[in-house]
Amino acid sequence: MVQLNTPSRYTKASYALTTESVSFGYTGTTILDGINLAVREGEFLSLLGPSGSGKTTLLRLLAGIETPSGGRIICNGRIVSGAGMDRSMVFQDYSLFPWMNLLENILLAIGKAHPGKTKREQRELAEEYLGMVGLDGLGRKYPFELSGGMQQRVAIARALAMGSPFLLMDEPFGALDPINRNKLQDLLIDIWSQASPAKTVVFVTHDMDEALYLGDRVVILGSFPGRIMAELEVNFPRPRSRQSYLTDPELQALLREIVDYFRQDVMEQLDGIGAIRSQREGI
Question: Which domain holds residue 42?
């Protein structure tokens, strides 16, 4: 059986994933500068920022897909030097293999995570993961036969099938309509909150409402270069109600605070552009 039945939340003060003065750039352009981030075990962390703030780059660094130009990343006491089975990633574009049906897509992950299981056991496990995301009995269908929301459910199921304690998600619902987006947000929270052992989620988004609704904590990135502007705790009890979320005064205050940080970031960029123009014009 897939062990996702015991409610769990992070209870430890220890940090499972940290970055120490991480920077990244190429061809003379700095994308991220001096990123110091600590993610708690079992936490749902929302990584929020405008386009160009390096959110996706930071996630790829955490996944080991990219290598820092400076600093280091530590995962459960070990320096990250590449991709690993302990970190699963969900992309915005679903990244399913179109020539494989849904079961075959998930079996790729299960084969790596559970090589000792028989083919029949692996198939049964794949079917369980499909059922977990509400796609029971659709294993023989191909990605092109599904809506975008259903394809993203398969991508989530495949990431879960890896059995990784870390789930890294790069704007996974950004291309969906509002109704499907809300449904998948709730599905993700249900899966995460029931996971045993607990899963640590780092969720990249540029949507302020999504960041607050999903996260235990919101880390705000500024742009050009990407840097951490603020870290905000979201002390809103779970399970969360969307209706309560819209009217809760503390959450609305957090939303206004985030808007202020974004406004500050824009003003800093405009000031920088103005300074460059003045230098060029000899003012």
Answer: 15-86+164-281
